[in-house]
C-alpha cells in the first residue's frame, strides 16, 4: 500500500516548486528582455480621464505657485528610436528581492512645469500582467546620477498598445504636487506587481541617448549586479546597444521664475575733518 502525503504537504511542495521556477526564470532570461516592436502610440490627452523641484541647478524651495497654462503640452519627448527589449522596473509583493529601479534624466528649461502625464513605452513579460499599481518618482540630479528623491506618488494608468500613460496630475487645481523649476531631474516609472500571477513589467530601451544614459539598480543584489545606481547598459550590461529609455512628458507651463533683486547697500558718508585755521601774521 502506497503511503500518501497529507494534502497540506503536497500544497507546500507545489508552492515551493512554483517559486523556484519563477526565480530560475529571472536568471535564464536577461533582465533587458521582452522582445517587442515599440510604436509611438501616445493617447490624446483630451480624451483621457499625480512635478516638482530641486536639482543641482533647479529649485524646490517654497515659491509662489505660478499661473499655469490651461492646456498640457509635450515638454520632453524621447518617444522614438525604440530598441527591441525592455528592462525590469518593478516591486513584487511575493518576491521583494527582485525589486528594481530604472530612471532616466530630463531637463526643464525656460518655464516651470506642472507635470500632468507621462507616456512610457513598455511590456509585461513572464506573465500577462496587469500591474497592481504604478509609482512615479522624481529625483534631483547629482553629477549625472539620481540625487535625492523629491516627489513620489501612486498613479492611475491607461494602456494603448505598448504605451502606458501614467496619470501624475489629472486636475491641476487639486493636485498637491510642487512645480519643476529649471534644472536637471530624473524620473522613475515603477510597476508594483505580484509575480506569481502576473509576471513582470519592463520599460522599453532606447538606442539614442538624450542627456545622461539610463541608470538602474537592484538593491538586494538578487540579480548579481548593480546594488546601487549604475549605468544600465555600460555598467550593468543590460541591453548595451540601447542605453536610454522611451518616454515623453506632458505638462502645463508656468512662467519663467525670476530672481529677486537684492538691494545694493549705499555707502555711508564719512565726515571730513575741518582744516585748521591758518595763523594770521602779527602787524
Produce the secondary structure layout.
Blueprint: H1 7-28, E1 32-33, E2 73-77, E3 82-88, E4 90-92, E5 101-108, E6 112-125, E7 133-142, E8 145-160, E9 163-167, E10 183-193, H2 195-198, E11 200-206, E12 215-217, E13 230-231, E14 244-245, E15 247-254
Parallel strand pairs: 4-10
Antiparallel strand pairs: 1-3, 2-15, 3-11, 5-10, 5-12, 6-9, 6-11, 6-15, 7-8, 7-10, 8-9, 11-14, 12-13
- Report the uncertain regions: 11-65
Largest sheet: 15 strands, mixed
Helix tally equals: 2
Integer average pLDDT: 79
Alpha carbon gyration radius: 28 Å
- Shape annotation: globular
Fold and architecture overview:
- With 283 residues, the chain is mainly β.
- The protein has one domain (28-254).
- 9% of the residues lie in helices and 36% in strands.
- It has a 15-stranded mixed beta sheet that branches.
- Mean pLDDT is 79; it is low at 11-65.
In brief:
It contains 2 helices and 15 strands.
Pick out its properties:
single chain, 283 residues, mainly beta, 15-stranded mixed beta sheet, 2 helices, 9% helix
